[in-house]
Amino acid sequence: MKLILTFLFVCGLIISNTEANDLVDKVTKLAQECKGSTGASDADYENLLNYQAPNTDKGKCLTECVLKKSGALGENNKINEAVMVEFIKAGAAGDASIEKIGMEGLQACLKVPQHPNACENAAALNACFTKNLRAKGFKGLPA
């Protein structure tokens, strides 16, 4: 569910093996923790889990919190490429075509200009991943 949602979303691309299921569970728990610490609403939380772009400042900060706590986003608010590669591989569950889509999305999103506001930055990166996955015809995301 997550990618990391969203990105994390890239993480939860496929839920067909134990590693992918564990990753989804981890991200879901992080999202719940971050919901409390950011003051995000239930709607913000549900949007995150359903790959919907955050539409509130607290929703954007929820995304940022999950990405940071998962290690996908470094302290410098840049994508942690090594962690994302691990998430993509876990989410792909051995499916080379899904892994390729995830890796192409990662490369595209590494080029997203960094926003000075950490929450806006995380939301932009999340939107990039979701957009790239949908553009590649990935079927694991809701329309």
UniProtKB/TrEMBL annotation:
SMART domains: PhBP (SM00708). It comes from the Eukaryota. GO terms for biological process: sensory perception of smell. GO terms for cellular component: extracellular space. CDD domains: PBP_GOBP. It holds the Pfam family PBP_GOBP. InterPro entries: PBP/GOBP, PBP_GOBP_sf. Residues 1-20 form the signal peptide. One of its GO terms (molecular function) is odorant binding. Keywords: Signal. This is Pheromone-binding protein-related protein 2. It comes from Ceratitis capitata. The gene is PBP2.
